[in-house]
Amino acid sequence: MMLDAALAYARHGIPVLPVHWPxxxxxxxxxxxxxxxxxxxxxxxxxxxEASIDPHRIAQWWSRWPEANVGLHTGIVMDVADVDSxxxxxxxxxLLGGELPAGPQVRTGGGGWHFWFRPANFGNRVRVLPxxxxxxCGGYVIAPPSRHVKGTYYYWxxxxxxxxxxxxxxxxxxxxxxxPPFGSDVPLAxxxxxxxxxxxxAAALEAETHRVAYAVVGTRNDTLNRAAFALGRLxxxxxxxxxxxxxxxxxxxxxxxLGRDETIRTxxxxxxxxxxxxxxxxxHP
Length: 285
Hints:
This protein has 8 helices and 11 strands. By secondary structure, it is an alpha+beta fold.
């Protein structure tokens, strides 16, 4: 199954690489007891640089490692918006005016989404929106029918057509900016990650308030505190107004069922802590 899929991707010009797979007990086939990316890192010694469309080489790899997950080199045939949480899905929809991107869509084994786009000639970006990474030049993604450490599988929701669509302009503007070193992931605090602070902040506010509003019982106050801290960092950087954040978080807390006094105390505490550690925009152009 994995070999057939790998060969099919290669026939469409997408360089393929074998990736470690989940082992029993939630571990990784790499054997490291504390692997931080079980079933998600390359099996090859030289990693992404060995990705290939050669069917003979691919057949050799999967003959040696028949359970290997399938990795796809991005930035050549497609780039991928990697949405890893409900907050990311909500933030992306908000950025795109309530619509999900057209084109190929993958449901990941961890419950997230991969949206395929035509290559935009940018490198990898971490957190272009809360819960959304961009995989471009120098990156790779795990592809269907690979298996997640949870025991679930990656699968197609919308299969690829002739060519992926171009990324919407609002998304392109967020990922634009100086490229990080080849194949690297730039942390959120790097100001080059936030090319359009206003759009980023609006999406962050929408995502965090949604997370608070739909937090499950037993996690609601902690979720509110985390959201207030995250948004407080943006307030401290001058990207959001404290009154607006407070108003939106109070409404979300009320929707979730939190008491008024408890909500106000938690928001004030989280915002104050966040403002003391603002997102760094000191060198933003």
